Structures are given as C-alpha cells and as structure tokens.
Amino acid sequence: MKYFFDTEFIESGPENPLQLLSIGIVSENGKEYYAVVDPIDVNLNLADDWLQNNVINHLDFINSSKRKKIIAKEIVNFVGKDPVFWGWYSDYDWVILCQLYGKMTSLPESWPMFCLDLKQETYRLGNPKLPKLPGKIEHHALWDARELKFRYEWLVGLSHD
C-alpha cells in the first residue's frame, strides 16, 4: 500500500535537531491520519517568525496534540506492514518520520529504510506542470499529503496517455 505523507517541522540550524510539529498521511485508498505534536515534545522557542506565522499559529495544540510516542504507535497501526512511503522534497520529512522510532535501524519490522520522492519522479518525467489540489490549505501536513496523492495520481494518468 502506498502512503503519501508530509510533515511540518522546526529547522533551526546544525546545533539543533529537526523537530516534528505535525504529520499528515494519506493512503492510496483514501484513509487519512493527522497528528500535532504535544508542545512538551518540541521547543517552540526555536521557531522563526515565518514558521510561527504560517504553521504554528494554525496548529491546534489544545485539542489535537499528542505525545510523539503515541503518534509513533498510531502510525504503525495506520500503515501496517510493508508500506511504500511517498513524499515531496522528502529528505527531511523521511528523517523526521524515522526519528519517531529512534535510529533508522529501529524502524518497525517490514518498513523500508527509504521513501520515494515525487519531486524526483517529476524531474525524471521532464518537470511537467503539476495541478494544485482545489481548496488546499497551505503549510498544513494533512493537506500537503492529500495534494501529494492527488499529484501522484495525476502523474500516473499522464504516463498512461
């Protein structure tokens, strides 16, 4: 099963590790998972003004945040065995997802140690102009995952024409 995912995170330089803020995952059959990280597990003081204004101010920490350990367990239950992960410019997203489980060698059994990147696939196909998902909310992990699935399906259709 394919899973399209995106994260929102704090990146504040080499002295500080990446910090997960939220994650959205959409399966190829349309099921969705979304979680916001409990502020206990993240240092929000490291967020720059852009991140504060465009991402953090829109996260519902009061009603929908969870500890990272809970998010990690829920993702395992959501994706099951042998998932195929797809991202968009996904290097950091993949590292952040893997870090929920510790080291890369600590990933759940049957999970790959890599994810596929739709940006690389579009590059391979000559960089066609991709459609935007109607009604998309910018810089929201679940909406970005939905758009990723939408664009993947569009590219698959394009390659069959």
CATH class: Alpha Beta
**Sheet/helix structural class:** alpha/beta
> How would you spell out the order of helices and strands?
EEEHHEHEHEHH
What is the helical fraction, as a range of percent? 25-40%
The order of strands across the largest sheet is 4-3-2-1-5-6
General shape: globular
Straight-line distance between termini? 24 Å
Overview of this structure, please?
By secondary structure, this protein is an alpha/beta fold. The chain has a single domain (2-159), classed as Nucleotidyltransferase, domain 5. Helices cover 35% and strands 20% of the residues. The chain is built from 6 helices and 6 strands. Strands 4-3-2-1-5-6 form a 6-stranded mixed beta sheet. A hairpin with a 4-residue loop joins strand 2 and strand 3. The model has no long low-confidence stretch (mean pLDDT 94).
What topology emerges from the helices and strands here?
Layout: E1 2-10, E2 19-27, E3 32-37, H1 49-54, H2 61-64, E4 65-66, H3 68-79, E5 84-87, H4 91-99, E6 116-117, H5 118-124, H6 141-159
Parallel strand pairs: 1-5, 3-4, 5-6
Antiparallel strand pairs: 1-2, 2-3
What characteristics describe this protein?
single chain; alpha/beta; Nucleotidyltransferase, domain 5; six-stranded mixed beta sheet; globular
